[in-house]
UniProtKB/TrEMBL annotation:
<keyword id="KW-0808">Transferase</keyword>
<dbReference type="InterPro" id="IPR004358">
    <property type="entry name" value="Sig_transdc_His_kin-like_C"/>
</dbReference>
<keyword id="KW-0472">Membrane</keyword>
<dbReference type="Pfam" id="PF00512">
    <property type="entry name" value="HisKA"/>
</dbReference>
<feature type="transmembrane region" description="Helical">
    <location>
        <begin position="162"/>
        <end position="187"/>
    </location>
</feature>
<dbReference type="InterPro" id="IPR005467">
    <property type="entry name" value="His_kinase_dom"/>
</dbReference>
<dbReference type="InterPro" id="IPR003661">
    <property type="entry name" value="HisK_dim/P_dom"/>
</dbReference>
<keyword id="KW-0812">Transmembrane</keyword>
<dbReference type="GO" id="GO:0000155">
    <property type="term" value="F:phosphorelay sensor kinase activity"/>
</dbReference>
<keyword id="KW-0597">Phosphoprotein</keyword>
<keyword id="KW-1133">Transmembrane helix</keyword>
<dbReference type="GO" id="GO:0005886">
    <property type="term" value="C:plasma membrane"/>
</dbReference>
<keyword id="KW-0902">Two-component regulatory system</keyword>
<dbReference type="Pfam" id="PF08521">
    <property type="entry name" value="2CSK_N"/>
</dbReference>
<dbReference type="InterPro" id="IPR013727">
    <property type="entry name" value="2CSK_N"/>
</dbReference>
<dbReference type="Pfam" id="PF02518">
    <property type="entry name" value="HATPase_c"/>
</dbReference>
<feature type="domain" description="HAMP">
    <location>
        <begin position="188"/>
        <end position="239"/>
    </location>
</feature>
Length: 801
């Protein structure tokens, strides 16, 4: 009789579900999706329209034509959307470009109007939503249109659309319950064969490992065959275990019976010498029994620890030396010449992925075998050397060795090739199990000392730190685990942090290339995608935001416990990991602590009052050369009219400009400067701590705080390793390393203040004003805005721009 094919479980489930869900969910989903898209567009279009209108209000026409003073509020409005990148353009249609990105797409059939026009378009590989709005202005040549385009990527808009859509679907829970009823009926009907199999297995005796019989449906035939295959393998494993237990029982029973026999004969002996001889034989048998028991336990331990969960990076050199030191404590080693040769291996090149306990047990067995089977004055040499990408651990002895034809048999359990020194026969089998568990090669051969040579060949991993300062030195080709970091942070400050990361990432090298902030920005902006580093680090937050806004970064998912504060992250692509307040460094010989200005207004008054004495003795950043200096100065200008007055007062006092904090501190230490403003607090603190006549000061009204930021570029060769590094920077371990091993200040303090600057920050808490990572930082990078700001700066300093 022909066997009927099993019914289709998949068809039954699909038909049952389709009847309940198909019509209702399709219709309702279409309606919800349309509503969600309309609502999301309406919300975000208001931000675009507000930014465009804000820019149009600052457009004016002069003798040289139309110009615009880019308002900070325009991009601040767009920053209410914390995710999307922004682009803008201000131009006179058909005549001139005023500022912004000249290549923004124009609507195909759009006409310029005073009313905002919204449209979608792709720009540089990303989807954007744009607004186009114009304004007629009276120019010397007559009335003309000035147009503004503002665009945002649509990531947050799409996310909000999905949020609206899913929220609506949740409201359909009542209808879903009806559908779930259909699914429940279908599952109960269709899965009955599985319940039959489960019942069959549940009623079996523990020792019943026979295959499951039956004719399952086609959809679960693979599961059915897999269960039977598993039962077959389990039965084979049980038979092997029973065989091993029987072997162990036989060996232990034989050894204990021999021990009991010797003791019985000793008990029956009538003469002392005969009894003593029997006791000595019993003692020798007891030693063999203890050795057998120990090796049985060792064999079980090695097999148990052969899984990958027990494997960790292990340095062989100290492990071998420690094992030898333990072996030398044995009284049997007094006449043995035991030596180690491992001098040819450089530090850090002896690391393997393995289990230290198993390797130590294997080496201990090899040494014990050599001692047991060799002469009383045996020579045992242990060699650890390199062989390409591998490490070889060899043990040579001067004993009798093993005949070539017996070497294959020597690694079998309970096999002893010598009647004179007959043992448990487990020593080499344990070594073989350790080698197999480490995916290593085990070799037996004739030793140059005349006895046996046992060699285990392990695969090596390496941990090293490669620091490269300067340009033109690339990473070595083919090193997949090389992390390339481009950074505007001093190498000595970052080196301890990199070393702390490498301690968590064996097999990794770091190539660290140091730049100035503007040079780094230009390098990343102009590089081809295939020439990008893996991580970019800079203190110039605005330049970093610009690079990310150009679409040059990729997203990194950080764990919750490694997330920075909200002001120090943008788009899950740019992350701040340090806390860098702007500080005033002063010479106590020129300014006493009592005369220190309490706030920025008092600072302007202090300089004005003492202008003659301070002439040429005040320092700050050269804004044309320093990205962080420009960031501090431009953000300071937003703090009120007194900021501009302070710049003018400093200019009249002959302000000197420098490239970096270290030069300003050095000039103050020599007495060339009375004080320097807007120095990077962490650097300044580490530099002044050994100079008694220099001090650090914060103001009572506000102190700007920037953060050193990091991102993983698009095109990074090792994005996963780069993400691990960024995560490490913000992890508890990385933040502790910043606090304890570098002059930098962690963004998430984890304990009481320990350094002078941490104490000052704690005393002035509430006065620190973090600079937020938002598109608003792009305002002062606008070409016209930057030119105007630097022109005003140059005028205040009394020099031609």
């Amino acid at each position: 009789m022909t066997e009927r094919p099993g019914h289709s479980l998949q068809r039954r489930l699909l038909f049952s579900m389709a009847a309940g869900f198909a019509v209702l969910l399709i219709l309702i989903s279409i309606l919800l999706w349309t509503y969600a898209r309309t609502a999301a567009n309406r919300t975000h279009d208001l931000l675009l329209a507000g930014a465009a209108l804000s820019i149009l209000e600052r457009v004016s026409v002069g003798s040289d034509g139309a110009t615009v003073d880019m308002p900070y509020s325009a991009l601040e409005i767009l920053s209410l959307n914390p995710v999307d990148r922004v682009q803008y353009r201000v131009f006179v249609p058909g005549k001139a470009e005023i500022t912004g990105s000249e290549d923004l797409p124009f609507p195909a059939n759009g006409e310029l109007s005073a009313d905002p026009a919204f449209y979608d378009s792709d720009y540089r590989g990303a989807a954007f939503r744009f607004v186009l709005q114009g304004r007629r202005l009276n120019a010397p040549t007559g009335a003309e249109w000035v147009a503004v385009q503002v665009g945002q990527t649509v990531e947050e808009r799409a996310a909000q659309q999905w949020s609206f859509f899913l929220s609506g679907l949740i409201g359909l829970g009542a209808l879903s319950l009806i559908g779930l009823g259909f699914v429940w009926v279908a599952i109960r009907t269709s899965l009955s064969p599985l319940r039959q199999i489960a019942g069959d297995l549940r009623l079996r005796a523990p020792n019943d490992l026979s295959p499951v019989n039956g004719a399952p449906p086609r959809e679960i035939r693979g599961l059915f065959d897999a269960i039977n295959g598993f039962i077959t393998r389990l039965d084979q494993s049980r038979r092997l275990t029973e065989t091993f237990i029987a072997d162990v029982a036989h060996q232990t029973r034989t050894s204990l019976s021999a021990l009991q026999g010797h003791l019985a004969l000793a008990n029956d002996a009538e003469e002392f010498d005969a009894m003593r001889a029997r006791v000595e034989k019993a003692d020798s048998q007891a030693d063999r029994t203890v050795r057998l028991t120990n090796q049985l336990l060792a064999n079980a331990m090695v097999i148990h620890r052969s899984d990958q969960a027990s494997m960790h990076p292990v340095a062989l050199k100290p492990l071998v030396r420690d094992t030898l030191a333990e072996s030398l404590k044995d009284s049997r080693m007094r006449q043995i010449a035991l030596s180690l040769e491992d001098e040819g291996i450089a530090p850090g090149r002896d690391v393997i992925h393995g289990d230290a306990l198993s390797i130590r047990e294997a080496l201990r067995n090899l040494i014990e075998n050599a001692v047991r089977h060799g002469p009383a004055d045996n020579t045992v040499t242990i060699t650890l050397d390199e062989a390409g990408d591998n490490l070889r651990l060899s043990v040579d002895d001067a004993g009798p060795g093993i005949a070539e034809e017996d070497m294959a048999q020597a690694t079998e359990r309970f096999t002893s090739l010598s009647d004179r020194t007959k043992g448990s026969g487990l020593g080499l089998s344990i070594v073989k199990a350790v080698a197999e568990g480490h995916d290593a090669e085990m070799r037996l051969s004739r030793s140059t000392l005349g006895g046996l040579n046992v060699t285990m060949v392990f695969k090596r991993i390496a941990a090293a730190l490669l620091l490269v300062v300067g340009l033109g030195l690339g990473a070595s080709e083919g090193q997949a685990q090389t992390l390339r970091v481009y950074s505007a942070t001093d190498t000595p400050a970052m080196q301890p942090l990199i070393e702390a990361f490498l301690a968590t990432a064996p097999g990794t090298e770091v190539e660290y290339v140091e730049f100035q902030t503007i040079g780094l920005y230009q390098k990343i902006r102009d590089s081809d995608p295939d020439a990008m580093p893996d991580v970019v680090i800079s203190s110039a937050m605005d330049l970093q935001v610009d690079l990310v806004n150009r679409g040059l970064a990729q997203r990194v998912s950080l764990p919750v416990d490694a997330s920075p504060p909200g002001w120090a992250t943008w788009r899950s692509e740019l992350f701040g990991f340090t806390f860098e307040p702007a500080a005033l460094v002063y010479d106590r010989r020129a300014i006493s602590d009592a005369d220190l200005p309490a706030n920025h207004r008092d600072l302007a008054s202090f300089v004005r009052t003492n202008e003659a004495a301070l002439q040429g003795r005040i320092g700050s950043y050269d804004l044309r050369q320093s990205g962080v200096g420009y960031l501090y100065a431009s953000q300071g200008s937003l703090q009120g009219p007194q900021a501009q007055r302070l710049i003018e007062v400093l200019g009249r006092a002959g302000l000197k400009v420098y490239c970096c904090t270290s030069q300003m501190v050095e000039a103050a230490a020599k007495g060339e400067l009375a004080f320097a403003v807007n120095t990077i607090g962490s650097y300044a603190s580490s530099l002044v701590q050994d100079i008694p006549h220099l001090g650090l000061h914060f103001f009572e009204d506000y102190n700007l705080v920037m953060t050193r930021t990091a991102f993983v570029p698009q095109g990074a060769r090792n994005p996963e390793l780069a993400a691990r590094f960024v995560t490490f920077l913000l992890s508890d371990r990385g933040q502790r390393a910043i606090a304890e091993k570098t002059p930098l200040i962690p963004i998430r303090p984890s304990g009481p203040a320990q350094t002078e600057i941490e104490r000052l920050i704690e005393e002035n808490r509430g006065t620190f004003l973090p600079i937020k990572l938002t598109p608003a930082l792009l305002t002062f990078l606008d070409d016209l805005k930057r030119q105007d700001f630097l022109s005003g700066w140059d005028t205040s300093l009394g020099r031609l721009p």
